[in-house]
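Quick question, first post here. What does this chain look like in 3D?
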Amino acid sequence: MPTPTPDRLSWSPEHLRLALEAACVALWSWNVDTDKFAMDELAFELWGLPWANEVTFEQLSAHIHPADRDRVRAAFSATRSVAGTYEIDFRIMVRDEVRWISARGRGADEGIADWVMFGIFLNVTGRKQAEEGSELLAGEMSHRVKNLLAIASSLTQISSRSATSVDEMAREITHRLTALGRAHDLVRPLPGEQGKAALLGDLLAVLLAPYDDDAAFSGRIRVAVPRMGVGDRAATTLAMVVHELATNSVKHGALSSASGSLNISSHSDDVDLVVIWAETGGPEVKADPEMRGFGSKLIARSVASQFQGALDYDWQPTGLVATLRMRKDRMAA
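> Answer (accepted):
Ran it through. Tokens below.
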């Protein structure tokens, strides 16, 4: 006998509960008259709150990230008059942890019963972190492409100062661009190219070779650093810092001038290595520039994360003096 096929599936409350738990869907209801929320156990766990029969909107708002609080309050109020489904993403604070929550439901009192609206909470922290990572990478690549174009133009001007013929200038530009390519590989190593970081002095030599007149630190660029090994991740972060400083210098600072020079020195204690980037002989610094661009923010974040250190800028009339402080035990990572 053929097996009977039901016209439709029959979902028991237990089946629905299992499905919601599997999807990590937290349930809430909002009494628009009393402005109180009732939530299931998963919702209380998501918000990091102890179980209660109900919570007020104000009690929940106290846990919303301050930057999102007013926006969420306005969005929930707007759902009373806007028809159709809605989705609101916002951050909450669970002790020292930041979580992203997506609240979803229907607006314009659609589906309301006894002045109670219904909806769900989803934990979308992983998705938001992935989106932020993608945006950061896109911004970094856009910033780097713009810098490379500016550097190529500046390196052409540098090469034109000493070249005596078109052929000599072409060779110099090719040499500098090749050196720039090697330095760029240190900033973003290709798959399979990791593990080739060298000593600190050798790393700086590769990174600064495109900007030196003879590519051998003959006087324009002077480097005095301790003999210290640098790990893969540390080399990438350090390369980003040096690349950013050199880019700014070749566009606006000492390396943009034929008489400019760069001196890199260092000192250390039991915990930290301090590298000092000192420029002289470039255009006069008349005011401290605002270091608020994407590159500056990326470098500050990278130095704090990788080296548990900081990069400070001192804009003296004779040129920039930048101080990079790094924990020595983080250099090998």
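The longest helix spans residues 125-162.
The chain has two domains: 15-123, 148-330.
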